[in-house]
Design a protein that fits this description.
Layout lengths: L2 E6 L19 H13 L2 H8 L19 E7 L2 E7 L4 H12 L4 E5 L1
Antiparallel strand pairs: 1-3, 1-4, 2-3
């Protein structure tokens, strides 16, 4: 299962465009928990889908989940480092991160 290494360079700015879908945490453990939840079940995706002009037009490929996904978070100076182990595609992971953090994250490596 791939390991995605991610950074939230400025955790205070790690918020998506819609506050109802965004991260609410301030610390590494909270960010990790919220991302893990977004990967394991479809609650975040379904809330996002319901806000679309044509929810039925949303590709089902974005709805997939990985019940065994794990995410660990660690404070690194002022940034948060997240290690997400999941079978989900990079496309799905990036979509969930855009909802949660907007563009305020970086994908550093995939192993």
């Amino acid at each position: 299962m791939p390991l995605f290494l991610l950074t939230l360079p400025d955790p205070d700015k790690a918020r998506g465009d819609d506050p109802e879908l965004s991260f609410h945490s301030a610390g590494a453990d909270g960010f990790a928990r919220e991302l893990e939840h977004a990967l394991r079940d479809d609650v975040l995706f379904q809330r996002w889908r319901g806000k679309q002009d044509d929810p039925d037009a949303v590709p089902e490929s974005l709805a997939v989940t990985d019940p065994s996904a794990t995410v660990e978070g660690e404070q690194d100076d002022l940034a948060i480092v997240l290690r997400a182990r999941t079978s989900l595609s990079g496309q799905v992971l990036k979509h969930r991160l855009r909802m949660l953090a907007g563009s305020n994250w970086t994908l550093n490596d995939v192993r």
